Amino acid sequence: MKYSSFNLSEQNQKVESRIVVALERISEAFRVLLWNESKENSLSPIQIQILIFIYFHSQEKCKVGYLADEFNMTKATISDSVKVLLAKDLVAKEINTTDTRSYSISLTPEGKQIAKKASFFASSIEQPLEKLTEEQKTVMLNGLLKLIYDLNKSGIITIQRMCFTCANYQVDKGVHYCKLLKSRLAENELRVDCPEHELQL
Ligand code: SF4
């Protein structure tokens, strides 16, 4: 029978299980840090995530449907969060002039201020990573990219804007290339969230 990664007597026999458990511990750290940031601003974690997302992404991505896919939530849940942010004057609706039922969301000056500060919520996770060698960081980045790619292919993670899912990405004998940038990409230059990403058809 297949065993659980959390089964302690078996976990130490399999490196994959120990990686799963390690990732779970790290996701817990993200949860705690995000929660602390949310409390400081009297917002929920998803409301903080929405503000940070809008702060760094182009307007066509800042729509309820896109945000729902991005955060693996229903449109209704995102809509409720957006309503709270609107009521707190942290975001504004940008109505589409050609279709008045459709709108995107932008940050107000106060929303921008909160998003800017909150965007550093994970810096205590980045600091220990800075102590790794360049080789260790490259191996870790590649492993994580491959894991995210497979989770995306199996439908567990929805939207991805990484090189591996981009129409501009090519790989030949292990050499990565971006057709848009017209440049080779070193292993440690592969992107997780690229503003120029174009989905493969
Ligand atoms: S456009 Fe961005 S995501 Fe696509 S291959 Fe180039 S660097 Fe990677």
Defining traits:
201 residues; mainly alpha; Arc Repressor Mutant, subunit A; binds iron/sulfur cluster
Report on the architecture of this protein:
- 50% of the residues lie in helices and 10% in strands.
- The chain has 201 residues and is mainly alpha-helical.
- It has two domains: 1-131, Winged helix-like DNA-binding domain superfamily/Winged helix DNA-binding domain (Arc Repressor Mutant, subunit A, Orthogonal Bundle); 132-189, no CATH class.
- A three-stranded antiparallel beta sheet has the order 3-4-5, with no helix packed on it. A two-stranded antiparallel ribbon has the order 1-2.
- The longest helix is centred in the N-terminal third of the chain and has 26 residues, at 15-40.
- The two termini are 38 Å apart.
- The model has no long low-confidence stretch (mean pLDDT 93).
- It binds iron/sulfur cluster (SF4).
- Iron/sulfur cluster binds next to loops.
Rg is 19 Å
| Distinct helical segment count | 8
Average pLDDT number: 93
Structural class: mainly alpha
- E-strand count: 5
Q: What is the CATH superfamily of the largest domain? A: Winged helix-like DNA-binding domain superfamily/Winged helix DNA-binding domain
What does the overall shape look like?
globular
**CATH architecture classification of the largest domain:** Orthogonal Bundle
CATH class designation of the largest domain: Mainly Alpha
Placed side by side, the strands forming the largest sheet appear as: 3-4-5
What are the segments in which pLDDT stays under 50 over at least 5 consecutive residues?
Answer: none
